[in-house]
């Protein structure tokens, strides 16, 4: 009968979840620069060693937690049409950016990235990159279905998908009124040169 491993080999999911919740809360309350491993451990009810068994540094911990939180909320569905896919994707972006904790974390994360190129790069590769990869799958499905031209500029299209929502919520700090996403979907379809499925 195999023995259950002990010590560093065991990473209990409930402990990891408590730490994750603590990181997000500390980031929202204290900001990137003031967050400490000690405060996270205390809030999670664990020793600092539990953090270091999972991540080698504060930056690695923050990046991993935010990446998991963000990529899991990419919400790229296959609804069978580009219009439906865009609507679901934009709703997921809106929900991500208006999350009670993340909406307070993101502006600070962007500011930290402007001060620290290493933070900016880790954010790009662990959050922005995977989210764009998922959205690219959606766009390629639309090309395969004949809804987008084969020569669609995917890089530009990916910028168009989330940028208006980010600009409205984070930069302008303006409300999203009822019907906004539906209107945005229609404008985006026109901007991409989309056509209905043949």
TrEMBL record:
Residue ranges occupied by any HTH tetR-type domain in the UniProt entry: 13-73
Signal peptide start-end: none
PROSITE patterns in alphabetical order: HTH_TETR_2
Listed Gene3D superfamilies: Homeodomain-like, Tetracycline Repressor, domain 2
Keyword field: DNA-binding, Transcription, Transcription regulation
DNA-binding region: 36-55
PANTHER family: HTH-TYPE TRANSCRIPTIONAL REGULATOR RUTR, TETR-FAMILY TRANSCRIPTIONAL REGULATOR
Protein name per its UniProtKB record: TetR/AcrR family transcriptional regulator
Protein source organism: Amycolatopsis melonis
């Amino acid at each position: 009968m195999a023995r259950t491993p002990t010590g560093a080999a065991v990473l209990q999911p409930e402990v990891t979840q408590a730490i994750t919740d603590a990181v997000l809360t500390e980031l929202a309350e204290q900001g990137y620069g003031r967050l400490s491993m000690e405060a996270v451990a205390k809030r999670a009810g664990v020793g600092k060693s539990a953090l270091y068994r999972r991540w080698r540094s504060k930056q690695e911990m923050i990046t991993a937690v935010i990446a998991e939180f963000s990529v899991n909320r990419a919400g790229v569905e296959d609804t069978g049409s580009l219009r439906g896919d865009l609507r679901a994707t934009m709703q997921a972006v809106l929900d991500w950016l208006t999350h009670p904790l993340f909406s307070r974390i993101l502006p600070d994360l962007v500011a930290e990235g402007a001060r620290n190129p290493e933070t900016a790069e880790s954010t790009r590769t662990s959050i922005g990159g995977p989210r764009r990869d998922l959205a690219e799958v959606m766009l390629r499905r639309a090309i395969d279905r004949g809804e987008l031209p084969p020569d669609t500029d995917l890089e530009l299209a990916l910028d168009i998908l989330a940028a208006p929502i980010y600009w409205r919520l984070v930069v302008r700090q303006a409300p999203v009124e009822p019907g906004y996403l539906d209107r945005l979907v229609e404008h985006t379809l026109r901007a991409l040169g989309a056509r209905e499925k043949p």
